[in-house]
């Protein structure tokens, strides 16, 4: 799977069914060349008002990803 195909997917919390955000980057282990985590930018209406502050992002380890579907990525996290 290419990173470009991950970027266009929404990230949804499987426990609550709420949209968390979307994938902006991935963490890769250089030794084994595998994905360690995805970096997600939160969806927020307040984000438009925060021009001087960086986007609120957080890291989801690969162990917390349940499935990668056609349109969404289901994760199991508490946020």
UniProtKB/TrEMBL annotation:
A matching Pfam family: PRC
InterPro entries assigned: PRC-brl_dom, PRC_barrel-like_sf, Spore_YlmC/YmxH
Domain of life: Bacteria
Boundaries of every PRC-barrel domain copy: 5-77
NCBIfam families: spore_YlmC_YmxH
UniProt-recorded name of the protein: PRC-barrel domain-containing protein
